[in-house]
Recover the amino acids of this structure.
């Protein structure tokens, strides 16, 4: 069965610092992986996804993620954090039934 | 990507009452889903809304508590019945886009039950 583990329920970085949000998955088939962002009092917005092909995926707002099969990871990064990046971030994987399985989420705080 | 709207955006309800949440999509979609996000938690799939047939519920969710309608390919409703404070959550509608292998989410309905 597919599952997702996000390491760290809360991450705090300074403005301008590197953002690294960790996601590891478990899947018995080639995974489709996603990162979503939820800003305060809003719904979920798709940041980026990996289905097939290039393992380094670029998304919106300067975020990118790299699919590493050997490490079963799909970590989200951004070279320089902005105050506007403060939000909840969810990693997700499709299961074999075509349903999204979400991680527990990581709250990102950005300090001035 | 599809544009998804939900009504109401938020509501405060009394225990024992029911609330119906509407989800409208700007294009025809095959797959529509309803999720619950309890305070401080991740998203949990409630059910898949099937057009023209009964919804498919996930373990732990039942039709009597969360009846779902899907009269056409652009609209669905979720009713939260006989509410208790434990039902206070964000309820999100999402649609599946097979061409993009992606799900898109609505803005959510924030429900508080007193």
């Amino acid at each position: 069965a597919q599952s997702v583990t996000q390491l760290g329920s809360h991450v705090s970085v300074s403005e301008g610092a590197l953002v690294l949000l960790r996601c590891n998955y478990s899947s018995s088939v080639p995974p489709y992986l996603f990162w979503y962002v939820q800003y305060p009092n809003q719904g979920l917005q798709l940041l980026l996804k990996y289905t097939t092909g290039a393992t380094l995926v670029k998304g919106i707002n300067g975020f990118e993620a790299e699919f590493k099969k050997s490490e079963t990871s799909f970590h989200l990064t951004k070279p320089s954090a902005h105050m506007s990046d403060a939000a909840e971030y969810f990693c997700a994987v499709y299961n074999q039934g075509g349903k999204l399985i979400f991680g527990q989420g990581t709250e990102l705080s950005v300090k001035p | 990507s599809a544009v998804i709207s939900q009504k109401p955006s938020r509501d405060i309800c009394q225990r024992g009452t029911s609330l119906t949440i509407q989800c409208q999509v700007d294009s025809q979609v095959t797959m529509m889903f309803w999720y619950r996000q309890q305070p401080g938690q991740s998203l949990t799939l409630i059910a898949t809304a099937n057009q023209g047939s009964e919804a498919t519920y996930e373990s732990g969710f039942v039709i009597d508590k969360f009846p779902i309608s899907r009269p056409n390919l652009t609209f669905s409703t979720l009713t939260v019945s006989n509410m208790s404070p434990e039902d206070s959550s964000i309820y999100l509608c999402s649609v599946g886009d097979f061409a993009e292998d992606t799900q898109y989410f609505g803005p959510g309905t924030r429900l508080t039950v007193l």
Notes: Chain B has a mean pLDDT of 93. The two ends of chain B are 36 Å apart (CA to CA). Chain B touches chain A at residues 1, 6, 31, 33, 41-43, 45, 48, 92, 94, 96, 101-108, 110 (CB under 8 Å). The first strand of chain B starts at residue 4 and ends at 7.
